[in-house]
Every structure is written in C-alpha cells, then in structure tokens.
Design goal:
The structure holds 2 protein chains of 2 kinds. Chain A is an alpha+beta fold. Chain A has 2 domains: 300 residues, Naphthalene 1,2-dioxygenase Alpha Subunit, Chain A, domain 1, CATH 3.90.380; 113 residues, Rieske [2Fe-2S] iron-sulphur domain (Rieske Iron-sulfur Protein, 3-layer Sandwich). Chain A contains 12 helices and 20 strands. Chain A has an 8-stranded mixed β-sheet. Chain B has one domain: Ubiquitin-like (UB roll) (Roll). In chain B, the strands form 2 sheets. A 5-stranded mixed β-sheet of chain B has the order 2-1-6-4-5, with helices on one face. Chain B has a two-stranded antiparallel ribbon with strand order 3-7. In chain B, strand 1 and strand 2 form a beta hairpin. Chain B is globular. Classes of the chains: A alpha+beta, B alpha+beta. The interface between A and B is medium-sized, with 13 and 11 residues.
Chain lengths: 464, 103
C-alpha cells in the first residue's frame, strides 16, 4: 500500500460519530489528510542556532501570534507583557474599545518600560522618568529644556499590530503583515460552532522547559504517544484510531481523539463496563465548579445497559453534570463535543481544544534566544459562568517552580499527572536529539501528519 | 465622613474623604506633596512613613507593591505611597517637604 491511506485497526472517528446521540455538525464530519510526503525532519531544526535565528527573523517577527485573552486586558490600563526571543510587547487596553501593543522600550535610553503585567494609568520609565500616555503619545519629558532636539509628535511609542477573535488577542510585530482578518478568516469560519468569547480563564500555568519550543509543541499535536507516555489512559482513549485533518493549503490542522472508547492497542478483552469504570477512575480532570469530569459516586459508577456503550452512558452523565454546574442546557451538544479531544493547531504555536467543556489552550515559545529552552503554557478556559454569576477575574500566571510538578496543582485533578508524563519526556527528547547519529527524525505518515504539516508551514515562512 | 490625616514634621492637618487618596485630599486642601508622576503610582516620589493609625490604612495594591519592589527596592515596612493610600480613620504620617502649594 502506498504511504498515506493506511489507518489503525478498530472503529474510525467517523464510525463513532455515526453512533452519536445527537445530529453531528458538518465541521466534525469531514475527514481529510492531504499527503505531504514521508521525508525525515532534520535534527538541526531543533538544536542549531542558525535555525533559531532564522525563526526569530522570519516567523516570530512576522507571523500573527496569540498574546493573551481579552479578559486579561479588560479595563483601560490593564496590560500583559508578551515576550518572544528578544522582543517584548506591552499588550494593553488603551481605551474602552481599543487594544494596542507597544514595543516595550523607552525611547530615551531603551530601558524596558514594563517588566510585569498589571494596571497603570501611564507608562513611566523607571530609569529617568520619561512617561507616555496610554494612547502612546509622549506625556512627560523630564528636563525638557535639555531635549529641544526632540519633537514631541515624533516621540510616540512604536506599535505592533493587534487583532482579536473569539476572546483571544493576537499580535504581529511586522508593520507590513497581512491583515489579521485575512489570517484568521478560515479558522474563524471553521470554529463558528464553538465561540469562546464568553469563556473565562480558570488556570494559567507556565513552565520553562529544557527543550526547543518545537519539541514541546510536537508532543502535544498527536495522540500516538499515549501508548508510551500515558498507559493509564488507554482503557478509555482511542489513541491510534484518532483522526488527523490536514489540508496543505491551510495554516491550521486538527486532531479528533475519541474518548470513552478503548485504545485499539488493548481493546481486546475490555468490556464496555471496563471502559466506563476506567474512565471514572482516571479521568477526574479539573476541579468542581469548572466542569470537572465525572467522579465515582459512593454507590459506584453507573452500569452500561445490555447492548449499550460506555460512550452513551458517559455522555448522558456528563451532560447532566454540566447542566447542574453551569445552569444551562447542554442538550444540543453531540456526545463527541462532551467527550472527545478536538484540538486545533494554528501556526506557529497556538493550540486550542474546542467542545462543550473546560478546554485547554497551549502555547509554546522559545525562552529568550536559547534554542535549547522554551516556555510552555497551559491556559484552561472554563465555560461561561451561570447567568447572573459574576465573571471571575483572570488568575495570575502560575509559574511552575523547579521541583514542582503539575500533579501539585490541585485544580488540575488527575490531568496534573498526565501533564507530568508529557513534560517529563521533553528534556530527554532534546538531549537525545544532540546524541543521535541519525540526521533526522522519522515521522509516522498519518498519526504525525500534523507535525509534518507544521514543518511544511515553517519551511514556507523561512523561505519568504 | 472625612478622616483626618496629620503630616509631620510640618504639623499640617487635612480631611480625607473615603472616595479619594491621601494624595488627592492633600491637593484639595492646597498642599503640595513631593511627586514626579502627579499621583499615578509610577514614580515612588511620594513615599511616606505611617507614624500612627496603620490600622486605618487601605491594603497595599499590586501597583504600589510593584513600585516598592522595582523602583524603591525596599520593603514597605511602615511606608506607603500616599497616591495609592486611602484611610478610614485618623492617621499620622511623616514626610518632609509637604507644604502649602503657594510656598
């Protein structure tokens, strides 16, 4: 068989969707994987300074990238610092209907204007007290008698471009970049069913990891690794028969991984009741109040009726639990949107899960100018709070300290150890890439096609 | 209801409403408190010592804490930025250079 059409044994995602208790929307019904070849991916992409420098120049300084949630810049003066490689931006609400991104440097001697997120009424440099208004115009030149050569109207803060979509704020450092609307159009159309404007940040975790940012990203855009990394998930996670959607002409791609159904690796011998019981035992992710997964009641997990499936029961239970937690109906959502991992990746580094429940956003960035280190972030978005309930303030970023594990973050529930399993691999991948004598890594044709697509996009950007 | 703030060593007194900072109340009373940023919580110039009445002082917010951490590089102890400070009862402060604006 030529490379491309081979698929895992076991039911396909579309087979599972055929059995959904609700009509399945078209957006989940397509299955497309355009062949992009099977060449090895060169190791130097992960370890070389030259690759890193090229990425900074051609990608980070030119591509649209996710900076923050609108919630984080809700009021005038609220700002976050978005940093990538050597660049630093102050992303700030400058007026009730305006968000700007200023290059984070004083126009006098260059000191960074802001070193942390917060709320201010002006941008004042801590070096000599030069100050700018929130709209970027210069406010205060100390000892102005000594700066007769400075024209105030030319001393405004330089800006990067800003675009917003679905509650996300994107920035672009290139003044000549494509319009944000063009960049986001096809993904925005694709994700119309899952608006995320109303979602709130429940948890924002950041960690500095000893690996290239691409090593980290690529560990989170395939479900193939479950067999080696997350063995405890296999009784209820259909890993090898996940669906990977890749269109060569798009700058985003997708995975659908069915949950509440067994991995084809161990499906033999597992009953539907085994699948359901295992789900209850090991998928108690998140915490109460933000749509925690099912936890076993005192009288035990429910029984799968004769001829029924674990997915049917789990979907029914989750729907009822979410309705209780959030005080609204979830009856229009398919079983798939309640149970499955439906993840989109938008080049260069934005990953978002969609569906009805608490969903994660992942972001991976080089740490400073070091190709051997990256900043990995997990942002958990909870469904909108109950009608009339106060919208929670976004929590500050929680940096994972040395020696601290995701499992120590109680709000993650049993998702914590899952992240630990993933993150434990990452420095060892980077180390292995240095010692390997093989010039490239070898990817699975189908299950790792999103990684190949990502590299294709990266090549296109580097050739520009 | 106004709380009375006394400023040493000049011995000045003025009332502070519960909707304004000590800095704004001083300005309303015609007093000039040393400042560069004009009360925006970004320069650290108005830092003053609370001599008495700490229990009537508002909690320290993130911006004020940041100025202590990143501009003054000193722990707060008994000091506050008056441009961020609100009071709910009598407070005595120490700050040289607080004087009527006309002087």
């Amino acid at each position: 068989m030529p490379p491309g059409p081979a698929r895992s044994p076991g039911p396909s995602v579309q087979d599972y969707l055929d059995a959904d208790s609700r009509p399945v929307p078209d957006v989940l019904r397509y299955d497309v994987n355009e062949p992009l070849g099977s060449q090895d991916i060169s190791v130097d992409r992960y370890v070389s300074r030259a690759w890193h420098d090229a990425e900074v120049e051609k990608v980070w300084r030119r591509a649209w990238q996710f900076a923050c949630r609108l919630d984080q810049v809700q009021n005038v003066g609220d700002h976050v610092i978005y940093e990538v490689a050597d660049d630093s931006l102050i992303v700030m609400r400058t007026a009730p209907d305006e968000i700007k991104a200023y290059f984070n440097a004083c126009l006098h001697r260059g000191r960074k204007l802001r070193s942390q997120a917060g709320t201010v009424s002006e941008l004042r440099c801590p070096f000599h007290s030069f100050a700018w208004n929130l709209d970027g115009s210069v406010k205060d030149i100390p000892c102005v008698w000594d700066f007769s050569h400075v024209k105030r109207e030319e001393f405004g803060l330089p800006e990067a471009r800003v675009g917003t979509w679905s509650g996300f704020v994107f920035v672009n450092l290139d003044p000549d970049c494509e319009p944000f609307e063009d960049f986001i159009a096809s993904l925005a159309t694709e994700l119309q069913r899952w608006p995320m404007d109303d979602r709130t940040i429940y948890l924002h975790i950041a960690a500095e990891i000893g690996c290239n940012w691409k090593v980290a990203l690529e560990a989170f855009i395939e479900s193939f690794h479950v067999i080696g990394t997350h063995p405890q998930l296999m009784p209820w996670l259909a890993d090898a028969n996940s669906q990977y959607d890749v269109r060569a002409g798009e700058h985003w791609n997708r995975t659908i991984t069915v949950q509440g159904a067994p991995s084809p690796h161990i499906a033999d011998g597992l009953s539907e009741q085994d699948v359901l019981d295992s789900y209850y035992e090991t998928r108690a992710f998140y915490s109460a109040g933000v749509g925690r997964d099912l936890t076993t009641p005192e009288d035990g997990a429910p029984e799968v009726p004769e001829g029924g499936t674990a997915r049917q029961v789990l979907a029914r239970q989750l729907r009822a639990q979410l309705e209780t937690t959030f005080g609204r109906t979830f009856s229009d959502y398919t079983d798939s949107e309640l149970l499955d991992a439906i993840q989109y990746f938008l080049f260069p580094n934005f990953c978002v899960f969609v569906g009805a429940r608490t969903n994660a956003v992942y972001r991976f960035l080089p740490a400073g100018n070091d190709p051997e280190r990256c900043i990995a972030e997990v942002i958990l978005l909870a469904p909108p709070p109950r009608r009339g309930a106060e919208r929670p303030e976004p929590p500050p970023v929680r940096w994972l300290q040395k020696g601290e594990n995701f499992a120590d973050i109680t709000e993650l529930g049993l998702l914590g150890p899952v992240f630990d399993q993933d993150y434990f691999n990452l420095p060892y991948i980077q180390q292995g890439l240095h010692t390997t004598r093989k010039p490239g890594i070898t990817l699975a044709t189908y299950q790792e096609s999103r990684i190949r697509h990502f590299h294709r996009l990266l090549e296109q950007w580097l050739e520009r | 209801m106004e709380a009375v703030v006394r400023v040493l060593p000049a011995g000045l007194r003025f009332g502070v409403r519960d909707d304004e900072t000590v800095f704004r109340a001083a300005a309303r009373a015609g007093l000039r408190w040393p400042t560069v940023c004009g009360g925006n919580g970004s320069c650290g110039t108005c830092v003053s010592t609370v001599v008495d009445g700490a229990e009537h002082c508002s909690p320290v917010g993130p911006l004020e804490q940041e100025v202590f951490d990143t501009v003054l590089h000193q722990p707060l102890r008994d000091r506050r930025l008056v441009c961020q400070l609100r009071v709910s009862g009598p407070v005595t402060m120490m700050r040289r250079g607080v004087r009527p604006a006309a002087q």
